[in-house]
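Changelog excerpt

This revision adds worked examples to the README so contributors can see how folded entries look when concatenated. The first example is reproduced verbatim below.
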Amino acid sequence: MINCPQCNAQIKAKSTTHELLKCGHCGTTTFSQNNQHSTKSLLIKDKFRLKGKIYKVQTSKKIDSLTQYSIFDENKDNYILTIEDEDCTLTQIIDIKYNKNLSWHSLLPNTQIKLVEKDWLVTEKRQYQKAQYSYLTAQNAEVLVLIFQDKSLTSRIGWWIDTMEIKNVQ
């Protein structure tokens, strides 16, 4: 049992490891680790403000240690807010042309690659049960996320986000 960091109501955790919890009283979503709320965690309500825009959460899902929120902005544009550990990205799905030899294994950390008419640096690689993620960084905190799953590649482009910039909206 932990207390909601927003309203202090009790929230019952179902497991003793990592878990995304939603407060039944105020609707705040928080991340619990070992049944303890982390002060570093991100608190997401149904609406939040980021960089002058208001976003509405549609759905959230947990993939291993990764939490993904499907969100829409005021113009109904679809985004994906991804949180893992202390990393946070805000991205949109894009189609890119890439060399068919491009693979998760070929993208070594600290190597550069040119995609989407930009130079990118491979900064992180993560392997999950069903997919492999490569995070590439460009200037101004831009991020290109390449998700390899089976024989397909999904691409997302956006920004690295400081979680302190996210503000819940009533």
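The second example, added in the same revision:
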Amino acid sequence: MCDANLQTVPPNRVDAGFPQDCRCNMGYSHRALQDYNTTNAILENVCFPCTPGYYNPMLGTKECSPCGPGYFSPTNASLSISNCMPCAPDTFSMAGEKICTACGENAQAPGVSGYPTDCICKPWYTGENGAACSACVAGKYKLEPGSALCTNCLDGQYSTVVGATSNVCQWCVVNAQSPAGSGALISCICNTGATGPAIPWRTATKRSACVPAKPSLRVSRMG
């Protein structure tokens, strides 16, 4: 007689006299998960349930089939691929998973993502696909998702915003300059030949911002 979760083929076969005449039911396999893709001997008259993330719709199968990348199944002894459900956006699962794994902080992924590298940094963050994402520092911004580096503010500009979601770079006052990627107003310095604080006149003290120096007058003396 066949043990539990096995049956003869065809069912109720009366001439079955050996353990090898028994076949595992649907949802079960003749090999345990740790023995998949090996040449280990198959135990006769013993079956193993398909673990979550796997399924088997046929009798007498050596190994259960995994849910594909981007799908998961929490069902034990699953009979059908229909139990494999798609991962939600911002999560992923590789083949044979029982749950989907959330992308890292500040990363995103489309639905049915099957690999860690499907998680990419959001527009205002940067980092390798599937790795940690860091906010763009002041003086930089990033408009598109992915692994691209943050873009510097131009020469003569600055921005104090961390994690800028748009180009928020501001120009230094007239007759002032700053290096690319400047993250503070103090980076704006008056050009050679101009004097005054390199800040907008509304926040200046009594002096105007970066005023060109007046040329000195020379008086020639008659000899």
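Reviewer comment on example two: The longest strand covers residues 6-8. The chain has a mean pLDDT of 88.
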